[in-house]
Amino acid sequence: MTMMELTSSGPFYLSNNNITTSKSDDFATNDSFYGDTEEYDYRDDHDYKDLPDDLRKSLNIMSLIVYSLAFVLGVLGNGVVIWVTGFKMKKTVNTVWFLNLAVADFLFTAFLPLSVTYTAMDFHWPFGKFMCKLNTTISFLNMFASVYILVVISADRCVSVVWPVWAQNHRNVRKASGVSLGVWIVALILSSPYFIFRDTGPSTDDENIINCFNNFALSDDDETPSVIQLQLFRHRAMAITRFLLGFVIPFTVIVSCYAVIIHRLRRNRSLASHSSRPFKIIAAIIITFFLCWAPFHIMVLIELVNHMSNYSSEILDHVTTIGVPIATSLAFLNSCLNPLLYVFMGQDFKDKVRKSILNVLESAFQEEVSRSYTYTNSMITSRSKEKSVSDAEV
After folding, report:
1. DSSP codes joined into one string, 34-81
2. How far is the C-alpha of 28 from the C-alpha of 26, rounded, in Å?
3. CA–CA separation, 179 and 184 (whole Å)
4. pLDDT 10s digits, 49-80
5. Model pLDDT for residues 354-370, shown as the tens digit of each residue
6. How many CB atoms lie within 10 A of CB 391?
7. Can you give the pTM of this predicted structure?
8. 10 phi and psi, to 5 degrees?
9. Which residues form the G-protein coupled receptors family 1 profile domain (predicted)?
10. Is 2 helix (H, G, I), strand (E, B) or coil?
11. What is the mean pLDDT of each successive set of 10 residues along the chain, which is 394 residues long?
């Protein structure tokens, strides 16, 4: 299985213990998932257990280190961003976007100690069924909320560059807050199935070890062919839906927005010079998100396709068995990287060293002056021109 839903070690990936759930769905790996459905036991985790002990231990240690690092840096970094954008800075459209992005990352990293504990206890889940459900749901809530906030940021930037006058008249904090609320509602809806299907149960190897896994049948019946087919259908549906709605479609929109922005900036050099800093910061955030999450989605897709074929590849089984934990760890790191990007790209490094954290973040998040608005309204009045120079946002 994939690791995200099966395990809660990151809520993405399980490891050497057995679990009842589907193979490709979030973060646990099993063998012959789509092979002999009548004989398949969702709790088995043969692929992972067949790895050499040294490699398995190395993957576990890597996961513990990454989860712990993401927790410390993510809670502190995103906590600072929330404090600054929520309480220390003047409310603007940009600060609303970045505040919501930081809240999504903060929620996710705040739950990482559960994953650290789960991994450290050799994948024994001591926190109960509710926390098993909540932990994984928060993980996917973070993924969906983050990617759709990035979509909103990209669309907002595109509108501000292409239609600066309209943006100046219609962009405001109240509307930005409403859009952000809509994003959270959509993310909650998309992540709610994980709360429904997540379950806990004893490992098939040791009844004293409780696993956190995906129970797509919503029952203990893992032998009836019709139940197994239902599990497979639900698993495939969720995996494909997540891949399309959590990755392909959002990044298609983002890339399209930035293609339009780049085209417009090439035609207006003065606009480009004033848009370079915020453009680079937002582009860096989006690229980082893509690089961190793309390997996970690719691994899940490879595993899904491999096990939907009549003859699954043993090589691909081992690739995903090893690759999913690594891809999961990389995805976790994304939640602690944005605050670092704000600092190191907000202004020159020497200035960052001398200035306080507040000033650094203010520099990174401040609304930019739009000369295009001045240029567009140059025929109106000199008074409106002066106002556009000071107020317009790119």
Report:
1. TS-TTT--TT--HHHHTS-HHHHHHHHHHHHHHHHHHHHHHHHHHHHH
2. 6
3. 9
4. 566 777 878 888 988 999 999 999 999 989 98
5. 455 666 666 677 665 44
6. 12
7. 0.77
8. -110, 155
9. 77-342
10. coil
11. 41 41 37 31 46 79 92 91 82 90 94 92 92 94 94 91 88 94 97 93 86 84 79 87 92 91 76 61 85 89 74 76 87 86 58 54 62 46 45 42
Q: Which of 146, 367, 158, 377 is nearest to 274 (CA)?
A: 367
Please report the beta strands in 291-361, taking only residues with DSSP state E, as ranges in sequence order. Answer: none
| Residue in the structure block whose two tokens are 């608005």 | 373
Pair type for strands 198-202 and 210-214: antiparallel
Signed CA dihedral, 70, 71, 72, 76: sign only: positive
Mind listing the pLDDT tens digit for each residue in 175-214? 999 999 999 999 999 999 999 999 999 987 788 899 998 8
The residues, ordered by sequence, that sit 6+ positions from 113 with a Cβ below 8 Å of its Cβ are: 71
Cα separation, 317 vs 11, whole angstroms: 21
Nearest to 14 by CA among 191, 200, 196, 142: 200
Structural domains for the chain? 46-336 (1.20.1070.10)
Q: 245 with 52: CB under 8 angstroms? A: no
pLDDT digits (tens, 9 = 90+) for 313-340: 778 777 888 888 889 889 888 888 888 7
Going by C-beta distance under 8 Å and a sequence separation of 6 or more, which residues neighbour residue 92? 173, 365, 366, 367, 393
Sign of CA dihedral 264, 265, 271, 275: positive
Residue 250: partners with Cβ closer than 8 Å, 6 or more residues away: 147, 148, 150, 151
What amino acid occupies position 75? V
Q: How many helices (H) and strands (E) does the chain have?
A: 15, 2
Residue 68, token pair as written in the block: 């712990």
Give φ, ψ of 178 to 5 degrees.
Answer: -65, -45
Cβ–Cβ under 8 Å, residues 341 and 281: yes
CB atoms within 10 A of CB 241: 12
Contact (Cβ atoms closer than 8 angstroms) between residue 118 and residue 63? no
